[in-house]
Amino acid sequence: MFRQITDTVFASPQIDKDAVAQAKTMGIARIINNRPEGESDDQTPGSEIEAAARDAGIDYVAIPVTHAGFSQAQVDAMHEALESAQGPVLAYCRSGTRSTLLWALARAKAGDNPAAIASKAAAAGYDVTPVRQLIDMLAAGK
User: Fold this and answer.
1) What InterPro entries does the entry give (predicted)?
2) Alpha-carbon distance values, 139 to 7, 14, 101, 106, 125 (Å)
3) Per-residue pLDDT tens for 66-95?
4) Which of 55, 77, 94, 99 could connect to 11 by a Cys-Cys bridge, CB 3.0–4.6 Å?
């Protein structure tokens, strides 16, 4: 269920409370919810994931991303959430794609090589092509 992007970053489709327990056994230190509330009737509410995470001793951050796209504030928040994590991170959304794209943008902002970012995402089964131009721009601006 969890796809490994780097040694310390995993992406996932929508999780539930059982997945939080699995994340705990994997040593996940922070869960990042990139899914807006109410996106679909079958999603586990963020408040339930947050409560399960906190009960398991896992930090929880919500950075919701709609299908409208990514803002600089979201990229900055993701960068901060990744950089300040005290261990491995699990980011999730509906399919894991928005989480991976936001991770990619945050890493580009940090100055990572765009080709390396794309390669790591592809190895986890995600395609960053929809934001590749933005990745290049963010990486060049560093």
Assistant:
1) BLH_phosphatase-like, Prot-tyrosine_phosphatase-like
2) 21, 29, 14, 10, 22
3) 988 899 999 999 999 999 999 999 999 999
4) 99
Q: Find the length of the chain.
A: 142
Give residue 141's pLDDT band: very low, low, confident or very high (50, 70, 90). confident
- Written as six digits, the tokens of 79 are 């960068």
* Token pair in block for residue 137: 């721009």
User: Which residue in the block uniquely carries the two structure tokens 């986890």?
Assistant: 124
Residues 6 or more apart whose CB falls under 8 angstroms from that of 98 comprise 34, 35, 65
Indicate the fold that domain 3-141 takes in CATH: Protein-Tyrosine Phosphatase; Chain A (3.90.190)
Count Cβ neighbours within 10 Å for each residue of 42-70 and write b for 16 or more, e otherwise.
ebbebeebbebbeebebbbbbbebeeeeb
